[in-house]
Amino acid sequence: MRDSQGGVKFSFVFISVILLAVSAWFTQAKAAELPDHGSCNAYQEINA
Asked: Among positive and negative, which fits the CA dihedral 38, 44, 47, 48?
């Protein structure tokens, strides 16, 4: 039982990291499309 709980916890963390990476990449790609880089600067400040 303990092993399966550890697996569930690991998969939850793994999915969270994947979602975070995808959302960060999407934010960066969307900011690159904009003519003004205001949102791009905000994105860089958050990750500084």
From this structure: negative
pLDDT in tens, 3-44: 678 888 999 999 999 999 999 999 888 777 765 555 555 555
What is this structure's pTM?
Answer: 0.51
What CA–CA distance (Å, rounded) separates 13 from 41? 28
pLDDT at 44: 57
* Residues in contact with 32: Cβ distance below 8 Å, sequence separation at least 6, in sequence order: 40
User: CA-CA distance, 36 to 45, in Å (whole number)?
Assistant: 16
What gap in Å lies between CA 43 and CA 1, rounded to an integer? 42
